[in-house]
Design a protein that fits this description.
Chain lengths: 173, 122
């Protein structure tokens, strides 16, 4: 958890649902998701490149993926999914943490990375969070993951802790 | 093998204790258990030691138990490196609300500073 957040509140973020075209000209549909989406996400995470894992997630084995997703789809969590041709290719999630804060994570399948979909997912998850009156969001990121850190800074996250293996960042909505 | 196991009284540290006891039964390792005092843990060192001794009795293993006062990471490294241990075993790695593994300050200190081979149990 992070106990330092920016003083300033971030501006309004775009809300889901949305249809966007990525830089590879693929049409992607972004929508909020409930636990009925778990089965299709299990399939997505089974395809996830183990090299793209971070800090132990997503898990590798199917039973571990299922247990982990069940936790992310508890009623007080917020989830959005990006689909291409009906199949999920990206997922972003907010899980309640201590002191009314939420922890954020985002996952995009390898062949869809680097085409702008991470930004779309992240902004719309934060828009969804604003609709649900979430006020503080934090995340941790490996300190060598420059593309991810640049993405988080672009949408308004600020560094809050740099003392450990992982950096922590926070945003106030 | 001469093994030093660091225990901070967290749930995961007692799980690591049981794993290490099972292993040392199989391999006939010499085991020393070092109890460290971390601010994040509510149990006092004497309480941790009593629980450790219960586990030892239950496993029927004879091991030295010591309390290391002071900075947990540096004391573990100091004892492991200066007293001829072959391996330093430390438990740890909590998970965040979202399931991400977090390595605490003691683990980071030990991994970066120990000359002795380190096994992380999580």
């Amino acid at each position: 958890m992070t106990d330092r957040y920016p003083d300033e509140t971030a501006g309004e973020f775009p809300r889901p649902p949305a249809t966007v075209t990525d830089r590879e000209d693929r049409e992607l549909r972004i929508r909020t998701a409930d636990d009925e989406e778990v089965e299709s996400l299990v399939e997505m995470y089974l395809e996830f490149d183990p090299a793209d894992r971070a800090q132990g997630i997503p898990p590798v084995r199917e039973d571990q993926i299922r247990t982990w997703l069940d936790n992310l789809f508890e009623p007080d969590c917020l989830n959005i999914v990006a689909r291409h041709d009906g199949e999920p290719i990206g997922h972003a999630t907010l899980v309640p943490d201590v002191d009314d804060s939420y922890e954020l994570a985002i996952f995009v399948l390898g062949e869809y990375q680097g085409a702008g979909i991470g930004t779309e997912l992240l902004e719309r998850l934060l828009g969804y969070a604003q609709d649900e009156d979430v006020e503080r969001v934090w995340l941790s990121v490996e300190r060598w993951n420059d593309p991810a850190i640049a993405l988080y800074e672009k949408v308004g996250f600020e560094m809050s802790s740099t003392e450990s293996f992982e950096l922590e960042m926070g945003i106030r909505l | 093998m001469n093994v030093l196991l660091g225990i901070d009284g967290s749930d995961v540290s007692f799980e690591a204790l049981d794993d290490t006891l099972a292993r040392s039964t199989a391999t006939d390792d010499d085991l020393t258990i070092a109890i460290v005092d971390r601010d994040e843990i509510d149990l006092r060192p004497d309480e941790i030691e009593a629980t450790v001794r219960d586990h030892l009795t239950e496993a029927d293993i004879d091991a030295q138990v010591r309390q290391l006062a002071g900075h947990p990471g540096s004391r573990l490294v100091e004892v492991a490196d200066s007293e001829g241990f072959d391996r330093l075993v430390i438990p740890g790695g909590k998970r965040s609300a979202l399931g991400k593994i977090k390595l605490d300050e003691t683990i980071e200190f030990v991994l970066l500073n120990a000359e002795t081979t380190v096994t992380l149990v999580r």
